[in-house]
Amino acid sequence: MGLPGMTITVDSTADDLTDNGNCTLREAVEAANTKAAVDMCPAGALTTTIMVPAGTYTLTIPGNIENNNQTGDLDILSNVVLMGAASGKPSSTPIALTASWMCTTQAVPTSVT
Ligand SMILES: [Ca+2]
Ligand SMILES: [Ca+2]
Q1: Which member of 44, 61, 74, 85 lies 3.0 to 4.6 Å from 53 by CB, making a disulfide possible if both were Cys?
Q2: Mean pLDDT, to the nearest integer, of 74-98?
Q3: Would the pLDDT of 52 be above 90?
Q4: pTM here?
Q5: Cβ 14 vs Cβ 24: under 8 Å
Q6: Which of 22, 28, 27, 26 lies closest to 8, judged by CA?
Q7: Looking at residue 72, what is its pLDDT?
Q8: How far is the CA of 72 from the centre of ligand 2 (A)?
């Protein structure tokens, strides 16, 4: 099961899922989703806090209609808290996502009536 809480610090504004010695935002989300280490990101936990340094994070891997965080938008499939690393406050870091690749979250099912 792993630890109940884990913090992953993003160290690159790049967008990749490649084992190249960094921890991108996509890799951090992947580590949270899979509860396994991804490149330099440590394994996520039941609740994973992702520390996001100030910067512009442009998603550059093309793809749509894909919901497993591999291409296009980021797909958060577990409990994730995004924190601005500079201030340590939630939502303090603007994350610029390209308009067509919006960040989607699926951790909390919503009921539609
Ligand atoms: Ca990488
Ligand atoms: Ca996707």
Answers
A1: 85
A2: 65
A3: no
A4: 0.76
A5: yes
A6: 28
A7: 86
A8: 5
- In the chain, domain spans: 1-107
- Give the tokens for residue 103: 């960040």
Measured in Å, residue 80 CA sits from the centre of ligand 2 at: 16
Q: What's the average model confidence in pLDDT over 104-109?
A: 42
Q: Is the pLDDT of residue 69 over 60?
A: yes
Q: Which ligand is nearest to the CA of 33?
A: 2
Residue 65 corresponds to which tokens in the numbers above? 């209609």
Q: Which amino acid is at 102?
A: M
What is residue 87's predicted lDDT score, i.e. its pLDDT? 56
Phi/psi at 112 (nearest 5 deg)? -115, 125
CA of 32 to the centre of ligand 2 (A): 15
Query: Long-range contacts: 35-44, Cβ < 8 Å, 24+?
Result: 35/2, 35/78, 40/11, 41/8, 41/10, 42/6, 42/8, 43/2, 43/6, 44/2, 44/6, 44/8, 44/78, 44/80
